[in-house]
Write a sequence for this structure.
């Protein structure tokens, strides 16, 4: 069974594929935070901008089989249009995404992307892997297509990821407006991110463009 918080058709807002039409499938639950505000400051990941609990969002629900969920996702793609692209996110999608679902999506013509915190093994067959580190534990997923570091983080430094095997390195300013209680000292995360990119040109800036556009 798969638990889905929400799914929707929008533009990828972040990273190397920013601007690309995609269906987002947001799995319920995460291994680094309960999703409850009372646990935020004791969680391994404390700056999450996302509500990922329950199955009550738009086009959310419980799906008994991979084909049932794949059909639900595929039905949201515009009729008779190609370039089909699905982004599995969450919560932590690696808790639920499996080869059966990947096969079901491929059978429906989709290219498959994932947004993951990199702490859990991934199933085979994902076409685009975006890892966004959150903890000082070594990454389980230490290669992929893009590494997207939310900046700044108190105990985590971009330098420690530079030698990993990724095609693209992005720094994304931490959105503190999405975080009710915060430990972060820096308030202007956009300026500090911009400065870091200019001083360390391996890193490119990723802005959360969907938030500027007021879309999902
Ligand atoms: C909500 S997470 C879900 C996927 C996965 N659990 C992860 O952390 O990568 C989706 C993306 O949003 C980023 N993100 C979460 N909270 C953020 C914030 N407050 N500001 C900027 N990016 C944030 C994450 O780093 C990740 O790249
Ligand atoms: N438009 C849009 N782009 C996104 N890229 C990553 C997202 C996520 O929450 O994983 C996200 C999201 O929630 N919306
Ligand atoms: S950003 Fe990702 S890893 Fe962190 S709590 Fe949110 S869903 Fe979990
Ligand atoms: Mg998001």
């Amino acid at each position: 069974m798969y638990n889905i918080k929400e799914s929707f058709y929008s533009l990828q807002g972040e990273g190397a594929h920013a601007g690309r039409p995609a269906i987002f499938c947001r799995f319920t639950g995460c291994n680094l935070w309960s999703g409850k505000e009372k646990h935020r400051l004791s969680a391994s990941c404390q700056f999450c901008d996302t509500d990922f609990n329950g199955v009550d969002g738009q086009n959310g629900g419980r799906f008994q089989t991979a084909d049932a969920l794949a059909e639900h996702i595929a039905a949201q793609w515009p009729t008779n249009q190609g370039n089909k692209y699905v982004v599995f996110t969450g919560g932590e999608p690696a808790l639920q995404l499996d080869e059966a679902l990947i096969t079901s999506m491929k059978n429906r013509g989709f290219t498959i992307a994932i947004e993951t915190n990199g702490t859990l093994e991934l199933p085979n067959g994902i076409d685009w892997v975006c890892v966004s580190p959150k903890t000082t534990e070594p990454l389980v997923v230490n290669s992929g297509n893009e590494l997207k570091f939310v900046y700044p983080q108190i105990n985590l430094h971009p330098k420690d990821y530079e030698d990993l095997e990724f095609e693209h390195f992005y720094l994304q300013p931490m959105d503190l407006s999405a975080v009710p209680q915060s430990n972060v000292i820096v308030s202007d995360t956009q300026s500090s991110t911009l400065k870091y990119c200019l001083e360390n040109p391996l890193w490119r800036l990723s802005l959360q463009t969907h938030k500027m556009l007021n879309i999902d």
About this structure: The pocket of S-adenosylmethionine (ligand 1) is lined by residues 30, 47-50, 89-90, 92, 115-117, 132, 148, 150, 172, 174-175, 178-179 (CB under 6 Å). Helices lie at 66-74, 99-107, 189-199, 209-213. Residues 189-199 form the longest helix (11 residues).
